[in-house]
Amino acid sequence: MAMRVPFDEALLSTVGVPRTVELLDSSPRSWVWRVRLAGPETVVVKQITDGGDPGADADTRFAREVAGLRLAGRTAGPAVAPAVLAVDPSSRLMVLEHVDDLGRTDDWMPGYAEALARLHALTGPADAGALPPWPGPTAADAESFLALAGALDVAVPSGVPGELAGLLERLEPAAHHALLHGDPCPGNDLRTAEGVRFVDFERASLGNGLVELAYFRIGFPTCWCAMSVAAAPLTEVEDVYRATWRGLTGRDVPGDLADACAGWLIQGDALVERAHRGTADQLARVPVEDFEWGYVSARERLVHRLGVVAGLTRDHDRLHTLGRLCTALAGRLLERWPRLRPLPAHDTRPWY
Fold it and tell me: Which among 244, 239, 211 has a CA at the least distance from the CA of 121?
């Protein structure tokens, strides 16, 4: 199966006959091949699978990826994703444009931020329903975060529950329609001569673009390779994103970056890889065990996020008591586990 591309007769007549096939690295939820066709053209073929779990959401992931890629293909400027050349819904197969990745570059973040803004700006209110709304934090996440403070013997300021309730209201995605990638992590960004293109749109959604701009500050929350970005490059990439968005839409980016970062902080599922999300209260595990994802532990991710939110909300009108709690929680974690390490710097990102 791994070396046989499952083209049916329709794809063979539409796309062409595979001549050489190379299996590429991918998650357990998909097969990905680089395919040289009978002519000079090379394409990428991706098949969404259930990963050995018949109850997996393979059909949903296929539909989301195809919809996300087609919306991303609207751009009139440099492409931000591979073009969809053909699909076979019956086998959850898509044939995509092959994109040559230029590989490692030291100054990778400005181009990433520009492409992210261009991706986000492609959709608007008329696209409501084209993709699911961004699955942001819930009341259960807020309750779990407060319970974490109790488990660590950190007093919760009286204003925090109300601030969290307001945060959830402001993060409601219904009012926003930016095209979100869903997992814009290293490995899902390809560098080309025309700019960055994103791949792997299985979690594409519509929402506020700030929840993905927040990746730079909050440490890439859906990625195994969590990273910390220093102040100067952080300012640069956020300025690039905002300027690109403004140039494309004629308006400033809506929303509050502090809200977006706080939203990632209280989501326990952002401490574990996709296969483990929704299986347990991940924040409740933190006081009793430190579990790793990639080369960073849950407590290390959490300390970084607490510090980010504390810094952003110190003088915030609507989140300042949450900021005080974050400072106290970060201090308690470091007091109990003083060997926790800072997140690796952004220049240590992996290259594929």
Answer: 244
Q: How far apart are the first and last CA of the chain?
A: 24
The tens-digit pLDDT sequence of the chain (352 residues) is 455 788 888 888 788 888 888 888 877 788 999 999 887 789 999 999 886 555 568 999 999 999 999 999 998 889 999 999 999 999 999 999 999 888 888 789 999 999 999 999 999 999 999 999 999 999 999 999 999 999 999 999 999 999 999 999 999 988 899 999 999 998 899 999 999 999 999 999 999 999 999 999 999 999 999 999 988 999 999 999 999 999 999 999 999 999 999 999 999 999 998 888 888 899 999 999 999 999 999 999 999 999 999 999 999 999 999 999 999 999 999 999 999 999 999 888 877 6
The pTM of the full predicted model, rounded to 2 decimals, is 0.94
